[in-house]
């Protein structure tokens, strides 16, 4: 089988969130304006740039979502319990709205994202070697049907480490005793902290994540049972192999490449 070429950092940052071929997630007729590669950066003049302005109606009144009152928000800092600090950079505010530090996406507004500016997630890669093969726990996402790391959004005031544990427990575990989970969590090694090329990103709202690898080389997970829960439709061990093509959600292929490298497998 053909070796799947994983996206390189300079291009992966804005590919999925510039896709003009599909209608924007859960909207009826919102399509992104086409942004050529060379015009992604805000510094490049693009006089015809006038993308649709879309914020999903479903966000209105949701306790986990921002309001439309942008004057109240404290950008680039901890705003009450809401973390508006980007892992990447101090972002700019243009026309009262945060500006995506990675450039144009072909869509203004918040789309379906809860927060203006950075929306923080956390992604746990729980792994083992099985019959000499590197494997990690993957879920099938309920929303897009793609295979993914069982991650999720950081709640206001929540520590990222807690999010990692909560999401893994909710989406992939069928019960585990606290001691086993604690033992596994001690193995945590951070692989990535930054921007995600997520299909929901807009010019004013974007995903960021922290990816941590929990690698079990003591057989801690042998007795643990997995079950898809919350936003997951399925859960299973996925085997990493340089000869096989892994198609995953958002930037997760990039995170899996970093993870494989940590275990001396070069994809
Ligand atoms: C997902 C994470 C993902 C993040 C950015 C969240 O909804 O649960 O796994 O990394 O979005 O795409």
From TrEMBL:
Q: Where is the Nudix hydrolase domain?
A: 118-262
The source's superkingdom equals Eukaryota
Q: Which SUPFAM superfamilies match?
A: Nudix
Could you say which residues form the signal peptide? none
What stretches pass through the bilayer?
none
- InterPro entries xref list: NUDIX_hydrolase-like_dom_sf, NUDIX_hydrolase_dom, NUDT9
* Gene Ontology MF terms in the entry: ADP-ribose diphosphatase activity
Q: What is this protein called?
A: Nudix hydrolase domain-containing protein
Native source organism of the sequence = Acrobeloides nanus
